[in-house]
Amino acid sequence: MSLKASFISIAALCAPLVMSSPAAAQTAVSPAEARAVAKDAYIYAFSMLENYNTMYKQLADPAGREYVGGFGKFRHYSQLYTPENRDVVTPNNDTPYSWAWLDLRAEPWVVSVPAVANKRYYVQQWVDLYTYNFAYLGSRATGNEAGSYMIAGPHWKGKPPPGIKRVFRSETDIVMTLTRTALNGPDDIEAVKAVQAGMRLEPLSSFRKTAAPPAAPAVTFPPYDVAKARSHDFIGYLNFLLQFTQPPNKSEIALMKRFSTIGIGPGKPFDASTVPPETLAAIDAGVKDAQTAMAEKVKVTLSSNGLFGTRADLKNDYMKRAIAAEMGLYGNSLVEAWYGGYVGDGSKPSTIHFAPGQLPPAKFFWSMTLYTLPDRFLYANELKRYSIGDRTPGLKRDADGGLTLHVGHTSPGPDKESNWLPAPDGPYSAVGRIYGPSKEAMNGTWKLPPLVPVAAK
């Protein structure tokens, strides 16, 4: 995904990332305090840095395969994701993606959507730099009618012009959409392309047909380096991003003041070589503490439901926000999609049996998608079947009306292959998604059945 704003030079950010008055900034904090602050700051920053990884690929690297073309431009994919697509982990294989980023500093943007056939599901999920889902357009949220909506940043003041159905406000100057449009098989590609082509982005001044305001300063994106993002240099990346989150949310003013004791602040450069060695060692220890705490939390987080949403939904639980990014960036809010799943071993064939009347309760549709571990990408297989669900051609029901899925590395046999989800000869993750989940799915009354090993013959 990508980003824009007032600039910090690459040389300043990725070479020496200097702090103003580094000695003064560092002498006031003890190593023990620096370690504790760094731990909390890394957890706070993790999802934002994962978002920046995508942002950099999509906005700042024209030679990269993920490049979308810059701010204010949709890049549409009309084919389903394959194992070759690696710009986001745990990709949804049900609905081709459309990506776009907006820079809201100069003025709001207007997103217009076409009328979409009632039988087709689509959703525009809008995400801010914190990775909060701050706005939704689409089948569930706004319906399938045509319309124009405005996305405005934290500094915009004014009234929307006629023709705008609703204004969505973002806390951050840069936002992105991960838009999904349901594809009902290979014969449906042209219809999906038509829906995507009807989605438009334009600055508010263009929509109003008035003169454009002065452009915001160009942004120079610091090259993303995963090793730096996992070290004390996460501070440089976080500082770059924080300049697009001003003013800070009122609930975080005290937190930002605490973070400033280790050199964190909007737009501040950060140079590890100017930090006292004992303080830098403490920051590194705090980063490791955070990584350990996150790893332990991941082990006991069995569902991503409730990990994604607005700031109000997450209640400033930064560990929850970090785990959401670790498990699968850009998950939908629970009201839009329910997630659940399994961890298994493809060398041990297993089944998932839905009893009669207990299939996933979806208003729109449901699926089960398989990913390799630990990388969480789609598994390449000869059938080119990466997911299975209620729209899978040829899926066979049980005699009693239930449904049994087969998961494993080897085929369960010709009579069962229609219900087979191929898996690697080793660990995998299978993620179930329910689009338009029922109340029973959302409150936990309905649950996924267990993954049951097939008894050896």
Shape: globular
Overall mean confidence score, pLDDT: 92
* N-to-C CA distance: 48 Å
CATH superfamily descriptor of the domain at 75-208 = Domain of unknown function DUF1254
Query: What is the helix/strand order?
Result: HHHEEEEEEEEHEHHHHHHHEEEEEEEHE
Structural class, by secondary structure, is: alpha+beta
Largest sheet: 5 strands, antiparallel
CATH topology of the domain at 75-208: Immunoglobulin-like
Rg calculated over all Cα atoms: 23 Å
What's the total count of β strands? 17
Please summarize what this structure is.
With 457 residues, the chain is α+β, with helices and mostly antiparallel strands. It is built from 12 helices and 17 strands.
Description:
This protein is of the alpha+beta class and 457 residues long. Among the domains are: 75-208, Domain of unknown function DUF1254 (Immunoglobulin-like, Sandwich), CATH 2.60.40; 336-453, Domain of unknown function DUF1214, C-terminal domain (Jelly Rolls), CATH 2.60.120.600. Helices cover 26% and strands 22% of the residues. The chain has twelve helices and 17 strands. It has helices at 10-14, 22-27, 31-60, 189-197, 204-208, 226-229, 234-242, 253-259, 277-300, 311-314, 318-328, 439-443; strands at 75-76, 97-103, 109-113, 122-128, 133-138, 147-152, 164-169, 174-181, 200-203, 337-345, 350-354, 362-372, 387-389, 403-408, 420-422, 427-437, 451-453. The strands form four sheets. Strands 1-2-8-4-5 form a five-stranded antiparallel beta sheet, covered by helices on one side. β4 and β5 (133-138) form a beta hairpin. α3 crosses α7 (234-242), α3 (31-60) packs across α9 (277-300) and α3 packs across α11 (318-328). It is globular, with a radius of gyration of 23 Å. The chain starts with 9 loop residues before the first helix and ends with a strand. Mean pLDDT is 92; it is low at 1-27.
